[in-house]
Hints:
- The protein is mostly helical.
- It is 76% helix and 0% strand.
- The protein has helices spanning 9-21, 39-53, 55-79, 82-99, 101-111, 118-127, 129-156, 166-191, 194-200, 205-218, 220-243, 249-276.
- Helix 3 (55-79) packs antiparallel against helix 4, helix 3 (55-79) crosses helix 12 (249-276) and helix 11 (220-243) packs antiparallel against helix 12 (249-276).
Amino acid sequence: MMTETSHEAPRKSAAATVASEDPGALPFVAPCRTLGTWEPIGWLGHAWADFKAAPRQSLTYGAIVVLLSWALAFIAIRFGGYFELLALVSGFILVAPLLAVGTYSISEQIERGLEPSLRRCFIEERRVFGNLMVFALMLMIVFLVWWRAASAVHIFFPVDMTTPDWTDYVQFLGIGSAIGSIFAVIVFSAAAFSLPMLMDREADSITAVVTSINAVLRNKPAMAVWAALIVLAVAPGFAMLLIGREKGAGFALVMALLGITLPLIGHATWHAYRATIDASGWPRNEHLEG
């Protein structure tokens, strides 16, 4: 349900004006409701219910993420080194929303009372392929810029791997995290609600991204909690990545954990979208019934 607040009245008036001029016109951005600060915790509860309702389908997407990550790790280590791997894994957060698209479809199928099917997931991904590629291009550009920034941090703040001086690590990770957080905020704001909207409605990628950014800016406390929960979901694995770097055990663990946590975050993202965005002005996707 949408809750109307005083600051939303001008936006609705503007939308009504556009509709009166052109009844077939859609607003530039979908309206959003105001979230309570701790509502994201409830999204995780709904996500766990979806995970239990479709464990095979959810873990299939988790396994795909793990296999892709192992392949990228091999390439990074084979042609680079440990810090190239660290930058790659850090940048993985930037492209993870795109990998979770299938889990949005699983949650949508459960919501509609359908038996979760991977075939429907693939049909949905094919339907929105064009918009997903636009979004993927944006993420690719952000990821490449982040990769160059991470390389610059390693050049200007090198870490001697032969000495156990943790002050170098703190400096390297502190500066790298500060720079990476800028990229993470940009991607988080653009992806928080846009990809589920593309799966749910017949909307274009620009409208979905603008809608997502608008909703994030209007719900900063709740979005801060949601971002913190996502970070907590992957932080233990990244810690093991540092501890077990000699044998790669840390990386194997972080990817195994992501095989479970990423589907959960994906399911929760769908419920976050449903709780936040009112996209009723756009035609709903009716392809799932097939």
